[in-house]
Amino acid sequence: MDTMTLWHITGWEFAALAFAALLVGFSKTAVSGANTVSLAVFAAVLPARASTGVLLPILIAGDVLAVLTYRRHAHWPTLWRLFPAVAAGVVVGTLFLVWADDEVVRTSIGAILLLMAGVTMWRRRSAAERREPEPVTSRAGRIKARSYGVLGGFTTMVANAGGPVMSMYLLSAGFRKLGFLGTSAFFFLIVNVSKVPFSAGLGLIDSRSLLLDAALVVFVVPGALIGKWAVNRINQRLFEQLVIAATVVGGVQLLLR
User: Which of these, 190, 172, 177, 185, lies nearest to 232 by C-alpha position?
Assistant: First the structure.
């Protein structure tokens, strides 16, 4: 089957998906969470449920590039602390997808995008206040890790939108830039790969979605290279403002669609 005819995709729609794939690569090596814009684009161009299955292999490709770039900077104690709670969130998200139809998923993705925009703004405000991070080994720190883990697992399974949740957790835990990027790279590679059997079982990944992925994955590489070049040069504050604005627009568009 011709890739361009999948789900009746026009040339302009394929261009939008290609740009979204490039942004995935950029977000994985520069600004974690920026791929919420990609999520909005995929959900707007493709059926909402199908979009999560198509986007997942694109995200995994970006995760592999991020791991290759920042593999020396991962903090494994934090990863092991998060994984059990994330697994529980993924299971809950899978059960939700079994029950939900395309309209419910689309509305849920829109609501999650708006929630993630609010989470990101709260994260930036907290960082501006320069509060001391909660020690991850304390009781409050363990509760926070479990809470973020469950929410991150649910949002990443339902909408591939766990980036802002994990970004806020890692920043609140006091991670510097390279430690943040290295830890999040391994986190999302492991989590996204673990989601593949669930997505395939739900019919979200099949031969048609993989054919479209094969045409889009090439755009992830230049995005990752641009991100690697820009990570020490980008105006982080301005970019986050643009990401938040685009995320809000995408979320509203899905809710009103």
Answer: 177
First to last CA, the chain: 29
**Which pLDDT value is given to residue 60?**
96
Q: Which residues of the chain have pLDDT under 50?
A: 1-5, 130-133
Residue 235: both structure tokens together: 């105006």
Give me Rg for the CA atoms of the chain: 17
pTM comes to 0.80
Q: Cα–Cα distances in Å, from 107 out to 7, 99, 148, 172? A: 20, 14, 22, 29
Helix%, strand%, coil% for the chain, nearest 5: 85, 0, 15
- What pLDDT digit, counting tens, does each position of 134-153 carry? 555 566 667 778 888 888 88
25 and 62 in contact (C-beta within 8 Å)? yes
CB within 8 Å of 94: residues ≥ 6 apart: 157, 198, 202
Closest to 52 (Cα-Cα) out of 154, 149, 146: 154
Tell me how far the alpha carbon of residue 112 is from its chain's centroid: 11
Give the integer Cα–Cα distance in Å for 195 and 191. 6
DSSP for residue 138:
S
Let me know: does 53 contact 204? Beta carbons within 8 Å. Answer: yes
Please state, rounded to an integer, the average pLDDT across all residues of the chain: 81
Q: What whole-number percentage of the chain has pLDDT above 70? A: 82
